[in-house]
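Help! Submission page says 'invalid entity' but I think these are all valid:
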Amino acid sequence: MEKMTIKDIAKLVGVSTATVSNYLNGNLTKMSPVTQRKIAEMIRNTNYVPSSVARGLATNDNKTIGVSVADITNPFTSTVLSGIYEECGKHGYRVLFTNASSDASRETDNISKLQNQQVSGLIIDPVEGDSPIFKTITNRDAVMIDRQASQIKVDTVVTDNFESVKRFVSKMLDEEYDTLYYVSWPLKNVSTRWNRYNGFLEATGYTSGTHYLSVHNTGDTSEFVDQLTEIMEDNVGKKVGFFTMNGRVLIRLLAAMEFLGLEYPIDYGVGSYEDLDWMSIMKPGISCIHQDSYAIGTKAVEILLDKLNSKTEAEPRLIEVPTTEKIRASY
Amino acid sequence: MEKMTIKDIAKLVGVSTATVSNYLNGNLTKMSPVTQRKIAEMIRNTNYVPSSVARGLATNDNKTIGVSVADITNPFTSTVLSGIYEECGKHGYRVLFTNASSDASRETDNISKLQNQQVSGLIIDPVEGDSPIFKTITNRDAVMIDRQASQIKVDTVVTDNFESVKRFVSKMLDEEYDTLYYVSWPLKNVSTRWNRYNGFLEATGYTSGTHYLSVHNTGDTSEFVDQLTEIMEDNVGKKVGFFTMNGRVLIRLLAAMEFLGLEYPIDYGVGSYEDLDWMSIMKPGISCIHQDSYAIGTKAVEILLDKLNSKTEAEPRLIEVPTTEKIRASY
DNA sequence: CTGTTAGCGCATTCAG
DNA sequence: CTGAATGCGCTAACAG
């Protein structure tokens, strides 16, 4: 059973390759119903499948969208990817996957490679808000997700960071905390971290730069523990709470607190962005903000394919996907 | 700046396309050093990048490996994928991603699509141990990971399931448990679940079919809670322990126990397969088996590319990646 | 309604 | 050491 080509089935049916090609592309008006039927049957019998590679060469559009993610290991990201894949499948697109492992230079590399593979479109989950490579992408064939560039040059799909944190932290405030802290990876140039921080500031009224605590995602957390110690000492007798900007940061906080012999919700209160499965079985459960990662993926694809089909370049938009709250008992 | 082709740079340099092609493919002996230099320079100046699509058509090998995963949302799987991507990149292969969302028919679909996209090779993380589509894949261009087929027809890379569970459970036994239970998703035809169960049986000496508890990964867990209740009632005054076959199952168990008002390690002991970041911050920390998911990914790619390059079909092998133990205080 | 033909960008003989 | 010619599988005018 050799690999069939369009020529083979044309010969078998007794028509030209052009006719078969037309059939494959749905130009049914260009041939008689009999021919259609004969071609259809022959294709079924031979299990013929057109070569997407050849088609890609001929049409200069190989129906694949390239995805660059910052870190596939992040549970948020894998859910987004599943959304992307699902939506692409619905529209007959494949997905070419790349992962930067949180390394900006890897990302640059990945994106330029994707561009050179002549993908139809690009979906980028950026490592940081800025990168020279971003200058090379256009709003005609790309969309960004999760994190927004400092300058929005292409459509960007993010979760509702600012407002949802503002709302959530306001609720924490209702519990009469004396003081609240925002805990995050180093803010750097990452929009999600900043937007959540700003939502936090808006709710609390604190001034920027204060009530902010950063952890490094690398091994050593002694510095972080020291800062925490100081904060807790400064606030003896007061009610102090923390808002962590994602699940992994929350883990750092909890580990550090455990190390200090402190327990929530007694010694401190805590709430977090991101809703991970294990948060519900903590004792007590972690109150958090649930984001619809899957929808971010599907939405991004929808927008992208829309653009690809209507070759008109529009103004870049910022789409915010709403969140929900899971109130449990951690604060 | 139009898209350059091999013809363009051939013309610019003043040689034929064949020479440029030879240069691109490292056949440097076929041209003078001067020509090499001129071509090299021209390529640099024009930012020329050969079209992988065209090359794919011409060579009938488009340097992409297709990946079919059972569920990208599984933390295990995303780490594996990152390993796959990394190793592929090192060897100049791209990765075409597909996800079955734990649906066997989606998987069949995905794999047959990948086959029709003329990928160079296939890596499959199967939904179940058996599927008609597996008959269509050969050991020349595919490897399976994580779960093994009931009949090993292609090289398969898995974690050391049986032995590591056997060892781990033996240690639990040293703590003088009166009785131990294995908790799992329904065993079905999934090798990882069975192999871990068999390791459990080997260590405990129980007979197959006993001391086994299954949870469904769908919403309702009332049945599971009932079984648990019964077990705990049957064993009042005795020391009872549980081994969960992965992190998500552990979560179900913990949630159910919480519902019953029971606490580890007091009312029961627990250990688990899989080492997830949150397990260390549970109180007390969860003792578990740590598997090297990343290595599974890289290993799979290594084996696959090996096969692709040495077109000789060998006997399918089963490769087991070793695990390590994280002993904390949950039993 | 159907067939001819010329590419798409590159690799690969085979001559020179 | 170099180039002309041919083909990979398919699409897209353009004729008929």
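Support: the input was valid. A stray whitespace character was the problem, and the output above is from the cleaned input. Residues 5-7, 17-18, 20-22, 24-25, 50-51, 53-59 of chain A lie near DNA strand D (CB under 10 Å from a C1').
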